[in-house]
Amino acid sequence: MDILQQLNQIAQERDIPVDELLVELEEALAVSYKKYVGAHGEVTVKLDRKKGWTAILQKEVVGQVMEPSLQISIIEAKKRKPDVEIGDMIDVEVDPNRFGRIAAQTAKQVLTQKLREAEHRRIHDTFAAKLNDVVSGVVSKREEGMVYVTVNKVEAELPKWEQVPTEPYRTNDQLRVYVLRVDDSRRGLKVVVSRTHPNLLRKLFELEVPEIQDGIVVIKSVAREPGQRSKVAVQSTDERIDAVGACVGQGGRRVQTIVDELYDEKVDIVPYSDDPKTYIVNALSPAKVNSIKINEDEKSAYVIVPDTQLSLAIGKGGQNVRLAHRLTDWKIDIRSESQAAEESAGKKKASEGQG
Hints:
alpha+beta; GMP Synthetase, Chain A, domain 3; 4 domains; 30% strand
């Protein structure tokens, strides 16, 4: 395949203007040709997509030619330009086939560089406005723990530490990912995405719930243990709109869409409150709370729940109380009724003993 065929094919495949490639290649070939023949004057290379390419070399007009690649006799020169004099420089078209191997190397270098620049530009154009946002892609491959997700012909990297262990990541799976960052390294621009980031859940709700898009419902906080369970605190700016109901959707359709996207990660939607007690009680849902005491200075809460609700309030492996803590940013200490009664009795006994 000759240079021009390569040029046209690459321009078409990579969506790069062919004229842009032509200019770059002409300039690079001219520099290489000048160096190749050791010319002192100007060298011009012209590429025609239909006719091929030509090289124009400035040769010195001399009485006797000692170096044919750099000089032309006055007799030959006057055939081209009657008023030329010895010592002048004249444009002469030369056979580019002499330059074949060097031309091929130069073309390869230029095209490689242009492809790199085009890839940078495409990545930038695709992701510049999507940083810290969600994009849709397709799983293209898995290699050594890395999952690659193709978004608008750009392959983004989903590192192992940004993957949810319970998710399959099968080739050709449709996937929404959170755009973490765009790294500029020696190898070029690299897009890093996440499936574990709490803001993935936040953005999915924004996409699915029109009331959030319109600012009627506000997501106040998100706590997430990816692949297992999440809590989302929401508040309505319009008393006529139920924030939790809006996020759940009719028949649970809106939240179910998100749960499906997250491969059945459980999502609790709770109402936010400016009152810490109410907010903490809501955050511990679905467990019921008997009473709560808070310490504003330590930002801690002492919560008493029915004996039958203790395991539910704490959650498997402490998950429910851990998520409630992250959601509210309050330290939460939970006791069952019987535990609280024993502690109270113990304190009373200790107090009497001191008396």
